[in-house]
Specification:
Order of helices and strands: HHHEEEE
Distance between the termini: 84 Å
Oligomer: single chain
Largest sheet: 4 strands, antiparallel
Keywords: Signal
Shape: flat
Helix content: 25-40%
Structural class: alpha+beta
Radius of gyration: 38 Å
Strand order of the largest sheet: 1-2-3-4
Strand content: 15-25%
Protein name: PepSY domain-containing protein
Number of strands: 4
Amino acid sequence: MKKLIVAMLCLTLLLAGCGADPQPAETTTKPSTQTEATTEAPTETTTEAPTEATTEANSLKAQAESCIGKTVEELIALIGEPQSSDYAPSCLNPGVGEDGNLYYEGFTVYTYKADGVEEVVDVE
């Protein structure tokens, strides 16, 4: 009985067109209206020479980097006072010291202050 039901089901599917390859749809091609693309030679890019202000800022930054591990007093004696600064409780030693940001034109000096001594930690 089961074989008869399976056979009838297969016959029904076959007659209904399931499993048959669909006939390809008729396609038409239109003439191309596109024009041939032209390629342009890549343009040369020129880099401008650094301005005097940029050169000075890079020089000051290099001098500030030489102060990593030294006191902020030594930094200021070498490159001058920052344009501005801010301080917050230290993330490294909570409750002990302060982390500082000294802002110069073009770069920032990061400091750590504890027990009255402020040290240069990093320059970016």
